[in-house]
Amino acid sequence: MRMRIGGLTVAGMAVAVGVGAVSPAAASATVWSVRPGGAITAMAGKTTLKDTTTDSELLCNSARMSGTLKGGIRLPGTGIGSITTATFHCPSPIVPPIRLTARGLPWHLNMVSYNTSTNVGRGTISHLELMLTGPSCSAVVNGTSGTTADGVAAVSYANMPGKLTIHTAGGNLHWYHVSGCAGLLGDGDPATLSAAYTVSPKQEIISP
């Protein structure tokens, strides 16, 4: 079931992110090099949050994140970046509008494996939580139903052209605390989040 509300397509919502299988050219990495590091912003176009059980989706026109990356060599992959702000632009003619709000900030960027043939690193965003609110629907996306932000989404970073992609497989996101929503969302349903962010300034994130 789908219903279109202006720029939104409401058919469900979810957040999942996939790391994917490690190819022969890719390997788990314990140390990383980041250049230049420091403050970053990341801009995405179409961003989709989905409930994979009901096939309902919330489509946002754009999304933005900002934060910092550690710079240097021989860095651990865990906590290599910190995402301190995350916003989503999901236009809607209804009043009050549907809003998607980041919670649990700062989110943590972690790198896990690196493919030397494609110059693509894979990892996760952790400590992630999202809250959806609207005139007759509210819900939370998290790893578990508790109050602690413990959602995980799988990501990849392509050094060329400097894209951070959130994938729809490999995470632990689910919908919780669903109120209203006309059956479009279900408590405990798996969620997936997908977006491709352009990072500025462009970063080189590699594993030696």
What structural class do helix, strand and pairing data support? mainly beta
Strand content: over 45%
Largest sheet strand order: 5-8-10-12-13-15-16-18
Helix share bin: under 10%
Structural domains: how many: 1
The largest β sheet comes out as: 8 strands, antiparallel, barrel
Distance between the termini: 48 Å
- Overall shape: it is elongated
Account of the protein in words:
The protein has 208 residues and is mostly beta strands. The chain has one domain (3-20, 28-188, 199-206). Helix content is 0%, strand content 58%. The chain is built from no helices and 19 strands. The chain has strands spanning 3-5, 8-10, 26-28, 31-35, 38-44, 47-51, 56-60, 62-69, 72-76, 81-89, 99-103, 107-115, 120-134, 137-142, 151-158, 163-166, 174-180, 191-200, 204-206. It has an eight-stranded antiparallel β-barrel. A three-stranded antiparallel beta sheet has the order 9-4-19, with no helix packed on it. A two-stranded antiparallel ribbon has the order 1-2. The chain is elongated, with a radius of gyration of 17 Å. The termini are far apart. Residues 1-22 have low confidence and may be disordered.
